[in-house]
């Protein structure tokens, strides 16, 4: 495996995903928690960081713990730190170097650059730059602006790159990472969905024996794949519970239950919508709504689970990004996600998380390998509290029904126009606004909705989707004509940051 030491960069997870795409297992750990005892490590990558090496609180490590024991690749701050701590010089760049650059010259015979094309585009994002390297370091690549764009320590398997090989805009980034991971570190590229399934099923059988397990299904990809995997390992000992809080998409509860049935899962569907509507009546504060739904969900699930005899385990579709220990540089909670945490504490059951090592795209690959239908695998993410966080202001069954209808027109439209798979996620927001319109000869005074569709790779950042005008015109018409109570449609063109994907 490869260990990625995280110094707090926004792209650390991306490094992990790129390594996994090379069918190589890797783990991301905080910079100061190197797993010394682990004998399966083949190489180490040092990530970037929001800090400058000169900052008082900059994250620092004792390099002697890893130097000479494993090949090392330092990226951005990782490269600056290795050079600086060996006597090199790092200085603020005249202007922040941000965006595209080209490898104007590089050592073609260096192992790290095998297969890299002349003048290949690389992506820079750094405030500091390496201005001098120690004597035994050798410059192996330069761009027209940055002389020390990459270096190698002479006679050692240690490299530093000032640019970001993990980002999409570095054209030969994957090749560079492959050179490091496969050629230098000798990883065998044997991490595949099929091998993951095979070994996980064996482990689950061993871990769970003849014990009974409950799992909360949400209709989403993660919990569904976790359920199918567990079903393969322990069959009838798995009971899934799917709670309808009344704020799912139109017909979602019914359709998803049919899907699960086809997959041979043992599922109990619980319609608890009345309880949730009663508890949410009159509540307008977004965090308060989230708390009510989170707690209500746990209560309903707990009650149902207690009806099953001798349950020992709670299974969850937790995935790797939820488990990576965050360095919490700012420590602010933007939104409390209701499905992370809460349940395990309440239930006093042992926790089983078969997907805890996988990134989202790997979960999808595993689902496909397990034979799950594409419409389940390719599903857009949907927030745990559902349409509750897409109705601004208080929630009533009538508003939910209007929103479900408008959302259905939009989502069906995306599918019909072949746009569904091009966006990360889409939905409609019901605004607490009424406006004047005219329909036939009548004056109307009805609700406004906002369409939201974004592109993203991990929901951490997102851009509004540039959907065709013709499509938007058609959807707007359809919503206003078909959905009673709506007379105005707008499109949300904010990116994240500074906005978020959901409105609440
Ligand atoms: P934001 O709005 O923070 O959303 O940009 C990022 C992603 O998370 C989803 N989301 C949630 N998912 N429980 C979830 O499972 C929640 O409470 C929740 N709130 C937001 C959101 O849909 C987007 O994919």
TrEMBL record:
Q: Name one GO molecular function term.
A: GMP synthase activity
Q: What is its EC number?
A: 6.3.5.2
Keywords annotated in UniProt: ATP-binding, Glutamine amidotransferase, GMP biosynthesis, Ligase, Nucleotide-binding, Purine biosynthesis
Q: InterPro entries under this entry?
A: Class_I_gatase-like, GATASE, GMP_synth_C, GMP_synth_GATase, GMP_synthase, GMPS_ATP_PPase_dom, NAD/GMP_synthase, Rossmann-like_a/b/a_fold
Q: Which CDD domains match?
A: GATase1_GMP_Synthase (cd01742), GMP_synthase_C (cd01997)
Enzyme class label = ligase
Pathway per the UniProt entry: Purine metabolism; GMP biosynthesis; GMP from XMP (L-Gln route): step 1/1
Q: Which residues bind ATP?
A: 218-224
Q: Which GO terms describe its cellular component?
A: cytosol
Query: Which Pfam families has this protein been placed in?
Result: GATase, GMP_synt_C, NAD_synthase
Give residue ranges for domain GMPS ATP-PPase.
191-379
Q: Which reaction does it catalyse?
A: XMP + L-glutamine + ATP + H2O = GMP + L-glutamate + AMP + diphosphate + 2 H(+)
Q: Residues in the active site?
A: 76, 164, 166
Instruction: Show the PANTHER family listed in the entry.
Output: GMP SYNTHASE [GLUTAMINE-HYDROLYZING], GMP SYNTHASE-RELATED
Complex formation: Homodimer.
Q: What does this protein do?
A: Catalyzes the synthesis of GMP from XMP.
**What is the name of the protein in this document?**
GMP synthase [glutamine-hydrolyzing]
Annotated organism of origin: Bacteroides reticulotermitis
Task: Identify the coding gene.
Answer: guaA
